[in-house]
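ingest -> validate -> predict -> emit
validate: passed (alphabet ok, no gaps, 246 aa)
predict: started
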Amino acid sequence: MNNKTKPVIGILGLTRRTEPGLFVSGEHVYTGSTNVRSVLRNGGIPVLIPAAAIAADVEAALDFCDGLLMPGGEDMTPWQYGEEPLPEIGPFRPEIDKAWLAAAGYALEQKKPILGICKGHQTLNVLMGGTLYQDLSLREEKVIQHLQKYDRSYLTHRVEILEGTRLASIFGAGVLETNSMHHQAVKELGKGLRISARACDGIVEALEDEEGLILGVQWHPEDLIDSAPVMNRLFGDLVERCKERK
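emit:
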C-alpha cells in the first residue's frame, strides 16, 4: 500500500501556552504524539487540524480528510448543552468547543467517519443533543474511580461491551479492560446514538450511531497500543471505515 491509498485522518488540535523563559514561549497548537502513532501504526496518515482553521473555514480545513479523530482535552463548555458552569467543572475553552462541534457536524454531513476519545466522545454526544455530568461527584449514584492515579498505559477498570454493537464487532461482546482519565461523562444520550459499553457503575463508556459514522469511547486507547495491543483495533476500524467511504 502506498501513501496515496492511505486514508487521511484529521486530528482535531488543542492549544496551550508555554511559560515565559521556556523554548519559544507562547501559544502552540498540538496533539499528543500517541494519537499520531496510533493512526500511523494502523494504516492512516495523521494530519493536525487547528481549531482556528476550522473556525475560519470548516470546509477548507476538513475537505481533504477522509475521517476525523477527536482526542481528549479540557472540559466541554456547559453552555453547549444548556447549563451554566458549576464549581466542580474544570477549565473549558468555548472557542475550541465551538470549532470541534463544527468539525464533527461537517464530517457527519459529508459522511466522514469519526472516532471520539474521552472529550471527543463527550463532544459527539453533545453534538447530537445529549448532556454531560459536569463532574461525576454530581451523580446521585455511587461511581468507581474514573480518574486513575498512575501511568496512562495502565489498565485500571473494566467495561462491559454490549452485544450487537459495532464495538462488539471490534473487540467482542463482554468484558474489556481499559484505562480511565476523566471526571465528566455522558448523562443524557444524544439523538440517534446508542450505548455500546458501560462501566460497572453504569457510566457510559462507549457510544455509536446506526450508520457507522460515529464511534466514541470514554477511555484512552491511544495510550494503550503498546501495553494493550488489542486497542489498535479501534484505530484500524477508523481507517477501514474511511476506506469504505472513499
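The domain at 3-245 is CATH 3.40.50.880 (Rossmann fold).
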